[in-house]
Amino acid sequence: MSATDFDVVVIGAGHAGCEAAWAAARMGARVGLCTLSPETVALMPCNPAIGGTAKGHLVREIDALGGLMGLAIDATGIQFKLLNRSRGPAVWSPRAQADKRRYGSWVRDALCAQPNITWLFRRAGAVLMSGGTVTGLAFEEGDRVSCRSLVVTTGTFLNGLVHIGDEQHPAGRAGEPPTRALADSLHALGLAMGRLKTGTPPRLSRATIDFSKFPEELGDVPIVPFSFTTPRDVLDGRDQIACHLLHTTEATHELVRQSIDRSPLYNGQIQGIGPRYCPSFEDKVMRFPDKSRHQIFLEPEGLDVDEIYVNGMSMCLPRAIQESIVRALPGLETARVLRHAYAVEYDFVQPTSLLSSLAAKDYPGLYFAGQINGTSGYEEAAAQGLMAGINAARSARDLPAVSIRRDQGYIGILIDDLITQGCLEPYRMFTSRAEHRLVLRIDNADLRLTPLGREIGLVDDERWRVFESREKRLERNRAHAAGTRVKVRGATTTVAQAIARPDVPMAEIVEAGASFETDAQFASFDLATVEAEFRYAGYLKRHDAELARVRSQSDRAIPPAFSYEGVPGLSREVVERLEQVRPTTIGQAGRVPGVTPAALAIVALRVARPSKY
Amino acid sequence: MFATDDTIVAIATPPGRGGLGVVRVSGPRALEIAQSLISRQAPLEPRVATHTYIREKTTSGVVFLETPVDEVVATYFANPHSYTGEDVIEISGHGSPVLLERIVQLALAAGARLAEPGEFTLRAYLNGRMDLVQAEAVADLIDAVTPQQARAAMDQLDGTVTGAIKKIDAALFSLIARCEASLDFPDEGFHFIQQAEVRSTLSSIADDLRALIATASRGRLLREGRTVVIVGRPNTGKSSLFNALLGRNRAIVTPIPGTTRDVLSEQIDVLGVPVTLIDTAGLRESHDPIEREGVARAGEARAAAAMTLLVLDGSSELTADDDFLLNEPTKGRRVIAISKADLPPGMVPQFVAPEGITVSATTGFGLDELREAIVREVSSQDDRRDTPMLTNIRHIALAQSALDAAARALAALDRGATEELLLVDLHDARHSLEDITGTRTIDDVLLHIFTRFCVGK
Question: Are A478 and A568 found together in one domain?
Fold first, then answer.
């Protein structure tokens, strides 16, 4: 084996690229991290927040595996909330407003402090290949580096095109040049690619807003952290900022309707498909004419910056019209627009071309992660970056790829959905995508994933020690719940039975005499785990039985060389989808869009009993 | 499991001699194989019935001989517009089993494979020509013993049941979507659904499922028929009555008590309702181990039966055994027959059993009255002809498990459970319904949410 400059080269230092570089370097790989500027590392080009329903789950899983994102947001968050608190622990999800500038510099500093990472401040130009295998990366500046694995995390930069009204200019993000040479290089590899669109709202000057007109939205005290290893004292006493809630008005809707033909979304100028779950303001007005108002949140982009993010108002109308719309809102009459809203169209790689390791099927060593795979969201990007970094580092050492099952983590669902279904619009994680929702909780992300992180060399001794003591506490807490009797609302039962009643809050049971051990140093989730395990006990038992039954069928492997061509009874369309995705199991084949139970039965029959003809 | 890519052949009409018989060939080589069997040289045209001859080619020394086997009508159905979705040829010949089997053998010699039972329908299902309910209904239609049963099977083939299930499924889906939205979009300034509405929607889904299952008891009666077990002390004429109702001699009848030692069972058509009639050994103490075993089996049959037909010997006096049987508490329904009306009476029926029907297996006296009484007792359900009926045991079990899941969700709601728990049961219910039709509906919950609600910050 000839010596290479690096084991792993990562293109892009956004949320995917940073996790990839971090994971690979922590696992001992020599990493080159290629980005345009040290100023835009871990940038948040859209909303200044991390987490939310299902996204918060992803962050905790990243953390449980030994990733960066949870630690970064705990260190730099300026308002924390636990969403869905009124419901059960399976759907609790943390979200935090971030100080954008501090978040980026915290991540950059962490990467700088990590041995094995070399920064390459250059423009990525072309993927270098030899015999179908990655050998290195050529820069637009003319020089090149050699490597064994290459991770592409270029976000919206591939042939990026920014739209504001009828203004169009090529850009990866507003004000940053797009990546064309690399786009050409990837197109030349023959990867299936498509075009998507996303958008961001305007930023207003804090000094020009009359906040007294709007109700305040405050954070939680005490703060529920994202990371299993953020000490309590880091978050206790943290100053939290307020966000503000307002509503759009009929007058602003009328302004949109009057100028709708000047929106690139409605006059045919934009071809890419945008996310349905994050509709532009134009879409809100035009597609839901019955709604007389929509929610808007004003979110500070940092503790000491002037920029206010107008959450809920992404659009791409001309600049002057954006300003009229903003100023038509009560309280914003004198608001100054610092940066205008815009839409961006970009090329993405259809992720059905990827394996569960996130490597391209036809090009060993070439990995893709983040928005380039058709996802949206910092958390979705980071989760993929982490997995791509892990597998790139393992592949450089000729170790087999690791992947996470759908019943093991949201990360597993994310990647399985991407490689099985592909993207027709930007993909965002939701808890409704998780068929094993009661098992995939924020409190047990460590129980589900930290042993895997340890096994692959990503979880350090400190995190492992925290984990081991938590496991022991959990055992003692379980024994306590099963063996201690308490009187709650007139009934004397075991603590476990009391928890099983959904109408009795945990606090009441603790007050009645249940006492659980928790960690003094870390805001651990010991209580939440006990609550979930006993409250969901009946459901979890049924779930386990069902899972065992289903897996005996769905885990049946489809041979890699299996040909769908010429299998009678499969429609042309189904054959094409299956040939493109090349599912590895019967279960995955059943999740390929358009594959009917009848088609699946044919495939299962054929796999079980190959034709003799 | 069958292969799905070869060509299969079978006789498609019921066994036995009939006026016409049909041999069906299906698969990629169906046309080629059929063409090689017939005398007509020009290619068969799709959907055209062609009059031709089946011929058999033999050699005698160096001379090729062609012997006509049968005069037939061959019809070609080109894929996918056929029963199975493949190329199908139906060869309609004369209904002699010997001729039909000869045609099948010729097709086998030409490269077809003998179809397994149900394989044509399996292919129709696999090729998307019908859903599971329809596929199972076809099997029922073919097995149908009586006209009413055939009608129930037809109902399912038309998709009446599928339609009823789809309606319930749609209500369930909308409920699921709104509960999911509440979980995934907690920031939105409104609730997607209030608890009271969850409860009322869920209750009406449960009611619809219950109504569908209620039709099942009538559906099953038609499909499986009711079991009627004939009981009585030895030698009261049970087997004679069994043979009389059956219309032929199945049971051995002798004047010797204890002749019937095992349980005999036959499917009969009683005024349009299929009934499984069971003849049993007379209930008495016996030292004969074979007869004792027969008596034990009679007891088991009686326990499982929907109805007992108690036979008393009208030509003799009431014995202690008769008295015991008359007075023993019965779980199910009962009809009493007072037999041997052709012999001098040994009892006064009005005193012994006023509801008893006097019959004679020898003369046929009272048999029609007995048949009416049997039908009245086994089908006391209303005859609701226009409601879809679940007749298949698999469908009933799945509908029941959907109902169980809905009931669990309602109970959880009463205990104060939140959406993530309700949704476990709601998804369970939905999967059971989808298993009935074997189709997976496009369950893009998110698509439903995004098109109905304006969500997203």
Answer: no
Most confident of A280-289, A451-460, B214-223: A451-460
Nearest by CB to B421, which of A433, A539, A601?
Answer: A539
Nearest to A238 by CA among A224, A255, A253, A217: A224
Of A278, A291, A432, the CB nearest to B184: A432
Sole residue written with tokens 């055992």: A475
DSSP assignment letter at A397: T
Q: How sure is the predictor about A240, in pLDDT bands with cuts at 50, 70 and 90?
A: very high
Within 8 A of A55 by CB-CB distance, chain B residues are: none
Predicted complex ipTM: 0.89
SS3 per residue for A59-90: HHHHHHHCCCHHHHHHHHEEEEEEECCCCCHH
Residues A159-213 pLDDT 10s: 999 999 999 999 888 788 888 899 999 999 999 999 999 999 999 999 999 999 9
Chain A partners within 8 Å of B455 (Cβ):
277
Given a cut of 50, the residues of chain B with pLDDT beneath it are: 1, 381-386, 442
Nearest residue of B to residue A90, measured between CA atoms: B420
Single out the residue of B73, B164, B422, B427 nearest to residue A502, CA to CA: B422
Q: Which amino acid is it at A433?
A: R
φ/ψ of residue B92, rounded to 5: -100, 115
Q: Which of A275, A601, A609 sits opposite B3 (nearest CB)?
A: A609
Q: Which residues of B touch A432 (CB under 8 A)?
A: 180, 183-184, 445-446
Q: What is the pLDDT of residue A613?
A: 32
The pTM (predicted TM-score) of the whole model is 0.78
Which chain B residue is nearest to residue A430, measuring alpha carbons?
Answer: B184
| Mean pLDDT in residue range A554-573 | 83
Does the beta-carbon distance from A568 to B438 stay under 8 Å? no
Whether A430 sits inside 8 A of B446 (CB atoms) is yes
Taking CB atoms and an 8 Å cutoff, what residues of chain A touch B189? Answer: 295
CATH code matching the domain that covers B157-220+387-452, chosen among 3.40.350.10, 1.20.120.430, 3.40.190.10, 2.40.40.20: 1.20.120.430
Region A509-522: mean pLDDT is 89
- Answer whether A554 touches B (CB < 8 Å): no
Under 8 Å between Cβ of B162 and B131: yes
Mean residue pLDDT across chain A: 92
What is the C-alpha to C-alpha distance for residues A490 and A569, in angstroms, rounded to an integer?
A: 63
Q: Which residues of B touch A502 (CB under 8 A)?
A: 412, 415-418, 421
Query: B226-378, superfamily in CATH?
Result: P-loop containing nucleotide triphosphate hydrolases (3.40.50.300)
Q: A110-159 pLDDT, tens per residue?
A: 999 999 999 999 999 999 999 889 999 999 999 999 999 999 999 999 99
User: What class does CATH assign to B8-128?
Assistant: alpha beta
d(CA A413, CA A434): 7
